[in-house]
C-alpha cells in the first residue's frame, strides 16, 4: 500500500476512480488545473492533490450532473480549489550520470525522523517538492545562460 502522499500512475488513478484512462487524459485537455508530472515516455504521475481534484470533477460530472463547461466555470470562479502547481518534468532527475530515476513519493517515508505528525510530514514533503521544482527552474535558467555565452 502506498503512502497517502505518494504519486500515483494513471492506471492506479483509473482503478481508484473507476474511470477509464482515456477519460483521465481527456479531462486533462479540458481542465488545465489537472497537471500530472510527466516522466520519460510521457508516463503520468498524479500527486494526491491531482487525484483529489479528479475525484471532485468526477462527482460533479457523474453524480451532480454538471456539464464540462459547468465544472470549468466552477473552477474558474474558485468554487473548486486548484491544486498547487506541478513539479517540472525534470524536477526529480538524478544528479548522477547513470540515468537512474529518483523515487517519487514521500521523502520522509522512512523512520529517519520518528515522532513527526502526518500533517508535519506532509508539509515537509510539499516544501521538498517545491525546492526540487525551484532547483529545476534554476538549472534550466543556468543552461540557457550557458548557451548564450
TrEMBL record:
Keywords: DNA-binding. It comes from the Bacteria. Residues 89-112 have a biased composition (Acidic residues). Residues 75-119 are annotated as: Disordered. The keyword Iron does not apply. Residues 9-77 form the HTH merR-type domain. SUPFAM superfamilies: Putative DNA-binding domain. The keyword DNA-binding applies. Pfam families: MerR_1. InterPro entries: DNA-bd_dom_put_sf, MerR-type_HTH_dom, MerR_fam. CDD domains: HTH_MlrA-like_sg2. One of its GO terms (molecular function) is DNA-binding transcription factor activity. This is MerR family transcriptional regulator.
Amino acid at each position: 500500500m502506498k503512502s497517502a502522499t505518494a504519486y500515483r500512475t494513471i492506471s492506479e488513478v483509473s482503478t481508484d476512480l473507476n474511470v477509464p484512462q482515456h477519460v483521465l487524459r481527456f479531462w486533462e485537455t479540458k481542465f488545465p488545473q489537472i497537471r500530472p508530472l510527466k516522466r520519460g515516455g510521457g508516463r503520468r504521475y498524479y500527486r494526491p492533490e491531482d487525484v483529489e481534484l479528479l475525484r471532485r470533477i468526477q462527482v460533479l460530472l457523474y453524480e451532480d450532473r454538471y456539464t464540462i463547461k459547468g465544472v470549468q466555470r466552477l473552477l474558474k470562479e474558485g468554487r473548486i480549489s486548484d491544486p498547487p502547481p506541478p513539479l517540472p518534468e525534470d524536477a526529480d532527475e538524478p544528479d548522477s550520470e547513470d540515468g537512474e530515476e529518483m523515487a517519487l513519493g514521500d521523502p520522509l517515508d522512512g523512520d529517519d525522523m520518528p515522532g513527526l505528525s502526518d500533517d508535519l510530514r506532509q508539509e515537509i514533503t510539499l516544501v521538498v517538492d517545491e525546492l526540487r521544482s525551484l532547483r529545476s527552474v534554476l538549472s534550466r535558467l543556468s543552461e540557457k545562460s550557458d548557451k548564450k555565452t
